[in-house]
Design brief:
The chain is α/β, with parallel strands linked by helices. It is 47% helix and 14% strand. The strands form two sheets. It has a six-stranded mixed beta sheet, sandwiched between helices. The protein has a three-stranded mixed beta sheet with strand order 5-7-8. Strand 2, helix 1 and strand 3 form a beta-alpha-beta unit. The N and C termini lie far apart (42 Å).
Length: 256
């Protein structure tokens, strides 16, 4: 364990999983994906855990992939740590509640699609900039986002890649509710405490039937998206976009 993913067992059977890299806005590395997958599996297997709380350290949820680490350790296929984590997230049987403060970028937004309840601070912001980086959507967002909000709104998010605020995230159906304070953790914790007081098997069965019509499709979509994503990473467009991002300059796609 690196300490970049913290786990805490809270009263009543709540397992809190916290992204702990505040100096990098909790941007995810390959090592963190491995730890997240491990912790999600442990929480699922533990008889003492009834709900999972996911949040980011300090006033930030997740700035997406760490670009420097991403360039050094790019995913090569659907069995790379990031895609294994996403498939594990899709299969978690227990309720997952997310607390979003600050930014949620890229996978910081798409992983929320796999959570059962999502609470966000009024100042939180979201973005899905995959196309801007010469890549394609991941996390089964190509099926889950149209399912949630329809084709036109999905195209706006996944093709135009415009950032959006918490109020729009509610309107689009990505988050459950806004918190009453600047810290969404309080609202998410309240939901977790409500969940753990309910019959645990009934809660898990409710989640299962809510997801059953899409779960296998989501699994296959994660794999299909992963293959295309890895293919796009090898493209000249992605090379230009990612290096421009790392060098803090505007990319030039005029030659493509």
């Amino acid at each position: 364990m690196t300490g970049l993913v913290e786990t805490t067992s809270l009263k009543g059977g709540i397992r809190q999983i916290t992204l702990n890299r505040p100096d990098k806005k909790n941007a995810l590395t390959e090592e963190m994906y491995i730890e997240l997958e491990t912790q999600m599996k442990l929480a699922t297997e533990s008889a003492n855990v009834r709900a999972i709380l996911l949040n980011g350290k300090a006033n930030c949820f997740c700035a997406g992939n760490d670009i420097e680490d991403f360039l050094k350790n790019p995913p090569k296929d659907e069995n790379s740590p990031v895609f294994r984590f996403l498939r594990t997230l899709n299969r978690v049987e227990k309720p997952i509640v997310a607390a979003v403060n600050g930014v949620a970028v890229g996978i910081g937004t798409t992983l929320l699609l796999h959570c059962d309840l999502v609470y966000a601070s009024p100042s939180s912001t979201f973005s899905t900039p995959f196309v801007n980086l010469g890549c394609t959507p991941e996390g089964a967002s190509s099926i889950l986002i149209p399912e949630i909000m329809g084709q036109r709104k999905a195209a706006e998010l996944l093709m135009l890649c415009r950032p959006f605020n918490a109020q729009k995230a509610i309107e689009l159906g990505i988050i459950t509710a806004l918190s009453n304070s600047s810290d969404a953790l309080e609202e998410a914790l309240k939901a977790c405490h409500e969940l753990v007081e309910k019959p645990p098997i009934a809660v898990r069965e409710a989640k299962r039937i809510l997801k059953k019509n899409l779960q296998e499709k989501v699994e296959q979509t994660i794999i299909e998206e992963a293959r295309l994503f890895c293919e796009r990473l090898q493209s000249d467009e992605a090379n230009e976009a990612l290096h421009a991002f790392a060098e803090r300059r505007k990319p030039d796609f005029s030659r493509f």
